[in-house]
């Protein structure tokens, strides 16, 4: 088969699978397919369904002319509930898997955040209150001053009767925002995780756990739990019901899995303490203990809780990245999104002990591309700590053709990682650069996941310290072995990776070009304006209101070193980013302008923390290549 040229259009015009959902009977898996780059401001996506055993090809259930998302199976596996904005605002719909048109079940005038079918046929719905008459009057008269303490939007727990279409409140949680829930497999009460408000700060660090009886509305408050709690899952042992969930013991300190027995006096128990892998998802199994995904270096493991030892035993190890794990009622069949070194994410199914077989095929056109060879790296930090990462060789080149211009692309988080996965997209341009003649280094420095909680917590209070040293150690190793040309080094990344790019150019003149995407230039300003607030303060070491300073976060902010920047920097940012607001990019731009540093600032309208619109994604891909070509020299396209 002849290879074809990889173009920016080919990258952004493909399809991406999301949100797999295994049917309770294990026969089917539903999922969402969306354009990689949305055609405009309005999002579009479609529901698909496939036989879990691969016995029949996938088929499209909805047209894809609106945003259809969040598929959830009815208990009998005969129909799907989902959200769709086909009528203008997102409403709850239902469609039978054997065909027919979707029926709308709600006409709600507040935001709907989630849906969870219950055993009795009703659907638990998380939705904000509808606007009051006073709200509507003020809106009509443009009397729209925002009073921070009076903002609406907290998700309340409600119950929908699909027959009567009546949506009623259920369970008084004292005005708290419902984040996620799970019904006990025997049709009993519902476990609910709530925040004090919808704001990430303080919401994500003020988690509480509740048990709500959907029949009576009675609420059992289990109290405060660790931050960022998610994925509640029930399981039974010797007649007692346990509740497991994921949470962060400390901000950016890595996730843990906790277990509690509702009503018991004992506090929640940490089930993952001391493990050298990191939990990354839970899946409830009606007939047994929960399954879990674990980040394990460059691989991903499926594990299951052993009721006797209360430890998670490994069932299977998979090269690459697995996400969005979902299981049948029996737990004998699972589905997940899986991506490996040369295969983009697709829905795969099989037994939790493996193997998992691909059942969707959303990017067949990419199989005709000659990719750069992706190699696993093992190396040591300056203090001897074992590290890993990936090297993507220039497409069609070998070691004998080196040394090569090298672009180091740092992941976000910092509590994230590179698995041995497919690297193609505007924010993960590994193969995009490799097909243009660049070697690409993808490091997994301290602060990331996949190596236990101590590794993940290592940079809390000191970003740009040990993690920066780990990145440099990898670059030095690649230069010493003749792979990287030390005179043609570039660096880039998005979010925390964008911070690291901005940090790098203030620490050394080794890099000839840098790309800062949605990056942090000033941690103090981020605490005051970003949606993570004091959590970013914990990562950076301080908050700006802690006295007159100088503060610890000043010592780890790239803006403090702007006078030393000699590397040309491309700064790109979404205009509507609330995670890392646009002011971070403008601040760095103004500082570099003050000192005469070569740079360019590009702002993408309507975009948040990551680009969604197709034309913006295409523009970023082209700018990324052009920037490194300009400063590192043409890498020699074939």
Describe the protein's architecture and organization.
This protein has 638 residues and is an alpha+beta fold. Helix content is 16%, strand content 35%. It has twelve helices and 36 strands. The strands form eight sheets. An eight-stranded mixed beta sheet has the order 29-30-32-31-33-34-35-36, sandwiched between helices. A four-stranded antiparallel beta sheet has the order 1-2-3-4, with no helix packed on it.
Please tell me the overall pLDDT: 94
Distance between the termini: 18 Å
* Percent of residues in helices: 10-25%
Instruction: State the helix count.
Output: 12
Shape summary: globular
Q: Please tally the β strands and state the result.
A: 36
Looking at the chains present, what oligomeric state does this protein adopt? single chain
Ranges where pLDDT stays below 50 over 5 or more residues in a row are none
Strand content: 35-45%
Strand arrangement, major sheet: 29-30-32-31-33-34-35-36
**Biggest sheet: strands, sense, closure?**
8 strands, mixed
Compute the gyration radius: what is it? 25 Å
Structural class: alpha+beta
């Amino acid at each position: 088969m002849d290879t074809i040229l990889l173009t920016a259009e080919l990258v952004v015009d493909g399809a991406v699978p999301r949100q797999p959902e295994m049917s309770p009977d294990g026969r089917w898996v539903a999922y969402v397919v969306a354009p990689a780059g949305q055609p405009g401001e309005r999002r579009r996506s479609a529901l698909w369904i496939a036989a879990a055993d691969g016995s029949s090809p996938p088929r499209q259930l909805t047209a894809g002319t609106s945003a259809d998302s969040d598929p959830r199976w009815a208990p009998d596996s005969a129909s799907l509930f989902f959200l769709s904005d086909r009528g203008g605002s997102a409403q709850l719909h239902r469609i039978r898997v054997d065909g027919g048109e979707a029926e709308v079940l709600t006409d709600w005038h507040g935001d709907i955040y989630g849906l969870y079918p219950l055993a009795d046929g009703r659907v638990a719905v998380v939705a904000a209150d509808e606007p009051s008459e006073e709200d509507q009057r003020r809106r009509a008269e443009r009397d729209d001053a925002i009073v921070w303490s009076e903002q609406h939007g907290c998700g309340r727990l409600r119950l929908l009767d699909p027959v009567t279409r009546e949506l009623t409140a259920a369970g008084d949680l004292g005005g708290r925002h419902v984040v996620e829930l799970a019904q006990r497999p025997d049709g009993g009460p519902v476990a609910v995780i709530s925040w004090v408000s919808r704001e990430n700060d303080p919401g994500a660090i003020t988690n509480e756990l509740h048990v709500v009886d959907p029949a009576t509305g009675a609420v059992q408050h289990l109290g405060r739990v660790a931050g960022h709690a998610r994925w509640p899952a029930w399981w039974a042992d010797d007649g007692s019901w346990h509740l497991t969930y994921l949470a962060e013991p400390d901000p950016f300190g890595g996730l843990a899995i906790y277990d509690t027995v509702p009503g018991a006096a004992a506090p929640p128990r940490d089930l993952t303490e001391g493990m050298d892998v990191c939990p990354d998802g839970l899946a409830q199994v009606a007939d047994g203990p929960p399954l879990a995904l674990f980040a394990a270096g460059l691989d991903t493991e499926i594990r299951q809780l052993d009721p006797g030892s209360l430890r998670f035993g490994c069932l299977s190890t998979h090269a690459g990245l697995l996400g969005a794990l979902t299981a049948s009622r029996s737990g004998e069949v699972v589905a997940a999104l899986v991506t490996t070194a040369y295969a983009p994410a697709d829905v795969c199914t099989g037994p939790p002990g493996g193997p998992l077989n691909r059942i969707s095929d959303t990017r067949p056109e990419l199989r005709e591309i000659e990719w750069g060879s992706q190699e696993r790296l093992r190396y040591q930090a300056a203090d001897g700590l074992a590290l890993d990462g990936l090297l993507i060789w220039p497409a069609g080149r070998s070691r004998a053709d080196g040394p090569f211009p090298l672009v180091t692309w740092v992941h976000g988080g910092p509590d994230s990682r590179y698995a041995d996965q497919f690297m193609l997209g505007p924010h993960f341009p590994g193969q995009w650069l490799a097909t243009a003649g660049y070697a690409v280094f993808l490091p997994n420095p301290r602060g990331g996941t996949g190596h236990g909680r101590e590794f993940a917590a290592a940079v809390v209070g000191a970003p740009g310290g040990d993690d920066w040293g780990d990145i440099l150690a990898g670059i030095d190793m690649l230069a010493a072995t003749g792979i990287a040309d030390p005179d043609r080094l570039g660096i880039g990344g998005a979010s925390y990776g964008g911070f690291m790019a901005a940090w790098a150019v203030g620490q050394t003149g080794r890099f000839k070009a840098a790309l800062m995407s949605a990056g942090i230039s000033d941690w103090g300003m981020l605490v005051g304006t970003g949606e993570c607030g004091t959590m970013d303060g914990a990562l950076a070491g301080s908050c700006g209101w802690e006295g007159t300073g100088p503060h610890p976060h000043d010592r780890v902010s790239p803006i403090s070193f702007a006078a030393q920047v000699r590397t040309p920097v491309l700064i790109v940012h979404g205009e509507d980013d609330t995670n890392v607001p646009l002011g971070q990019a403008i601040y760095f731009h103004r500082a570099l302008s003050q000192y005469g540093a070569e740079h360019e600032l590009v702002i993408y309208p309507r975009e948040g923390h990551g680009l969604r619109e197709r034309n913006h994604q295409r523009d970023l891909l082209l700018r990324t290549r052009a920037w490194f070509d300009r400063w590192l020299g043409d890498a020699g396209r074939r």
